[in-house]
Specification:
30 helices, formyl-coa transferase, domain 3, disordered C terminus, CoA-transferase activity, Rossmann fold, CoA-Trfase_III_dom3_sf, CoA-Trfase_fam_III, CoA-Trfase_III_dom_1_sf, 13% strand, alpha/beta, single chain
Length: 813
């Protein structure tokens, strides 16, 4: 047994052969949980050591603040791939480790013996997590890419209607795709660690950053389009009201439901805008009255608007950035930010909290090569090769029973990953309150079984069992308690007051099962002034700073309107696995608090770190960014599927060598031969002029022509894809990212999977379609001892059912 308060990953050894944010963030999450992470660098060091997004000067011999945040508590060694003894040292580290995280950017990672495939062959006990733009195999495996061009390929540069039609689409700022790729890499590493604990066999996890971006920056657009025959959005429109100007600053107000729109109408004094019979969507109704709404907001103070919106239970928040977010009352009271180990800057606290299990406090990052001598001379013991059979299914969570009390996107995205990886998921709804994603497909209520036709619900809930149970009734609460006693895990994402009101706080459920793990996913946390505020993805993005870096400098920020939910889901998945590991070691139940906003603050960490370390406030810059110059979206010849001249390509020149390649590919024109453009600093100074010239070159060519010319030359380039066209990307087809799945009500449609390929399987992630409402009522209730006669009575009383009872229910209390 392990002492109470021990870190969940104590004794878990990870070799970090990665370079850049994704691998660094992955291994940071593991190190925070107690893993012994050994960062292996080439003698020149990871470029992150010299990185500052604001361009702040980092003195020679010192490391940048972002590197120190990401590498805290790790050990560091240097190894020269040209020196045999150094390569042998790395080999000894791998033989004695549990996992390795790899990306191809490091010179070490390109050594013949240190490719993921070679490591996996020699060390079958290791979980090897490879992080690459497109995956290790397939026609695009060697294609150059940056986070920016991957956003374009994913559809995330257009998202679900972000921006406005009078300008180019705009990407999500802050290198968001890199951070979510790191979060996914950590979650998948832990998942296959769980399998390795059971059977001793490792795995080669081939993670695609493109697929991570699809899952976190778009909203199942392929399933939506293929199932309904129309895209989610056909044009770019700012969310209304979204981020708006009040009398004394910016404020964020959101309407995610019809009721919230009606309440906003009443709050602003415009009851006449309410039209419950309108055939328009809530977004369309809000756009009709946008000018009047913005005029009203400009006369109000931020605090007054927020107080009023909170009283109406309308999602709202201040607009965070690197300067102001650390002083917001909610984050101060919750201790959401902490000082770095050296006191030089402020950083987010870990993105989740676990009762009884300890996460590490901030600790120093290793200096370059600091532990080389120590680890070179250390006596290590190679881990034994696996001898038994693999788990037959290849699924790490087989045998785990999970009660899924989640709705919409954040919670179900976490539990869906569990279901795809083998857990038994019981998705709980009620007939008065079905899962919200059943209601957002725009299917008329006159259509038969309209509630079963949502592509979003289908995409998020495959492999799950469906149970309806109205726990607002005493009968429902009693049955829920009986069910909980048979479950290993409960996951919920209500506002905290809901769970408290029905008596299902952690202490209460632990009385039903002492070793239960309860994962709670409130928007803003279980305590603090904003505890009970409703939280949708866009409000989380606004509060955390993710919106601040998205958009054009001469306009209010655009809400990404995507990343807040799935980012919370993947962080919660990691937190849950840490809790399960703590339970495995101690036998104790664990309460996990994985607030959506804490996950968002972590992937927006660079803003706070840059401001507190260097006094620099990062700003949105349209489609430019700190990594590459030139970087932008350029219009190309052609008319899109909606009849508009609105076709674009993304180009991002991240190195001087790529600039030479681009210059040659476009024919070595005189404007590109200026020696000042040979360096990134020079290109950044001349960015406007480059945009004009490169834009003119692109404008006379189709997107396919530009991509073919530049990609073949080795330049990161992408077509700006409409999200619902992801299926056309040959790399995704090669990797089987979409799996065709039938459904008893809906037409067969492609469903996205997880952003990984695996050596040992499973061969397919989707094994059954999303459940019909209450489809498995009888099966699940019988499993907890409810007779057929009792089930019939529950149906008659409206406690369970198979059709929505919105607006009323039969009750027997």
């Amino acid at each position: 047994m392990v002492a109470n308060g021990a870190t969940p990953l104590d004794g878990y050894v990870v070799v970090d052969l990665s370079s850049g944010i994704p691998g660094a963030y992955c291994t940071k999450l593991l190190a925070d949980a107690g893993a012994d992470v050994v960062k292996v660098e080439a003698p020149e060091g990871d470029p992150l050591r010299h990185w500052s997004a604001s361009g702040a000067a980092i003195p020679a011999g010192e490391d940048g603040a972002l590197f120190r945040f990401l590498a805290g508590a790790k050990r560091g060694v240097t190894a020269d791939p040209a020196i045999t003894d150094d390569v042998e040292m790395v080999e000894r580290l791998l033989a004695s480790a549990d996992a390795v995280v790899w990306s191809r950017d490091s010179p070490l990672a390109r050594h013949d013996t240190l490719t993921p495939e070679a490591i996996h062959r020699r060390h079958p006990h290791l979980v090897v997590t490879s992080i690459t733009p497109f995956g290790l195999n397939g026609p695009w495996k060697d294609r150059p890419a940056t986070e920016f061009t991957l956003q374009a390929w994913s559809g995330g540069a257009i998202g679900i209607g972000r921006g406005s039609q009078d300008r180019a689409p705009v990407h999500v700022g802050g290198q968001a795709g890199d951070w979510v790729s790191g979060a996914y890499a950590a979650a998948m590493t832990l998942a296959f660690r769980a399998r390795a604990v059971g059977d001793g066999h490792g795995e080669l996890i081939d993670l695609s950053m493109l697929e991570c971006q699809i899952l976190c920056l778009t909203y199942y657009p392929v399933t939506y389009f293929e199932m309904l025959g129309r895209p989610w959005r056909t044009e770019r429109r700012p969310t209304v009201p979204g981020v708006a100007e009040a009398a004394d600053g910016l404020v964020a107000i959101g309407c995610g439901t019809a009721q919230q729109w009606f309440d906003l109408c009443a709050m602003s004094g415009h009851d006449e805008w309410i039209d419950e019979e309108s055939s328009l969507t809530i977004t369309e109704q809000a756009n009709l009255h946008a000018d009047d709404l913005y005029e009203w907001l400009r006369d109000q103070k931020v605090d007054d608007v927020r107080d009023l919106a909170s009283a109406f239970r309308i999602p709202n928040s201040p607009v965070g950035n690197g300067e102001n977010v650390t002083s917001m009352d909610h984050f101060v009271e919750r201790g959401a930010f902490v000082g770095s180990s050296d006191g030089d800057f402020v950083q987010p606290a870990p993105p989740y909290r676990l009762s009884g299990a300890t996460l590490r406090e901030p600790a120093p990052a290793p200096r370059l090569g600091e532990h080389t001598d120590e680890l070179r001379s250390a006596r290590t013991r190679a881990r034994p090769a696996p001898t038994g059979a693999r788990v037959a299914s290849g699924l790490p969570f087989e045998g785990l029973r999970v009660l899924d009390m989640t709705t919409f996107w954040a919670g179900p995205s976490c539990t869906h990953a569990l279901a795809m990886l083998g857990a038994e998921l019981i998705h709980l709804e009620s007939t008065p309150r079905p899962d919200g994603t059943r209601l957002i497909a725009g299917i008329p209520a006159t259509e038969a079984q309209w509630w079963e036709r949502s592509p979003i619900f289908s995409a998020l809930n495959t492999n799950k069992l469906g149970l309806t149970l109205d726990f607002q009734t005493e009968q429902g609460r009693q049955l829920l308690r009986r069910l909980i006693s048979t479950c290993d895990v409960i996951v919920e994402n209500f506002t905290p007051r809901v769970i408290d009101q029905i008596g299902l706080d952690f202490e209460s459920v632990r009385e039903l099962r002492s070793d239960i793990v309860m994962l709670r996913m409130p928007g803003f946390g279980l305590d603090g002034p904003w505890r009970d505020n409703p939280a949708f993805a866009y409000i989380i993005e606004d509060a955390s700073g993710l919106s601040w870096l998205t958009g054009y400098p001469d306009r209010n920020p655009y809400e990404p309107y995507s990343i807040g939910d799935p980012n919370a889901g993947v962080h919660a998945l990691t937190a849950l696995q840490l809790a399960l590991e703590h339970r495995r070691r101690t036998g104790e139940g664990v309460l996990v608090e994985a607030a959506m906003v804490d996950a968002a603050l972590n992937v927006a960490a660079e803003q706070v770190i840059e401001h507190s370390a260097y006094g620099m406030l990062l700003q949105r810059a349209g489609n430019r960014g700190p990594i590459a110059a030139p970087q932008n979206l350029y219009q190309v010849e052609g008319v899109d599927e909606f009849g508009r001249e609105d076709c674009w390509v993304a180009v991002a020149v991240a190195t001087d060598e790529q600039w030479v390649a681009l210059r040659n590919a476009v024919g070595r024109p005189e404007w590109a031969m200026d020696p000042e453009l040979d360096t990134v600093a020079g290109r950044r100074r001349r960015h406007d002029a480059i945009d004009d010239r490169l834009g003119a070159w692109c404008r006379t060519r189709t997107g396919d022509q530009v991509v073919e010319t530049l990609a073949d030359a080795g330049v990161p380039v992408a077509k700006v894809m409409q999200p619902h066209r992801q299926l056309e990307i040959e790399q995704l087809r090669h990797r089987g990212f979409f799996e065709e799945l039938g459904h008893p009500v809906n037409p067969s449609a492609p469903h996205s999977t997880l952003p990984i390929n695996l050596v040992a399987g499973p061969g397919a992630f989707h094994r059954r379609p999303a459940p019909l409402l209450g489809e498995h009522n009888h099966e699940i209730l019988r499993s907890i001892g409810v007779s057929d006669e009792e089930i019939a009575e529950l149906e008659a009383d409206g406690v369970i059912g198979t059709a929505p009872a919105i607006g009323g229910r039969k009750t027997k209390r």
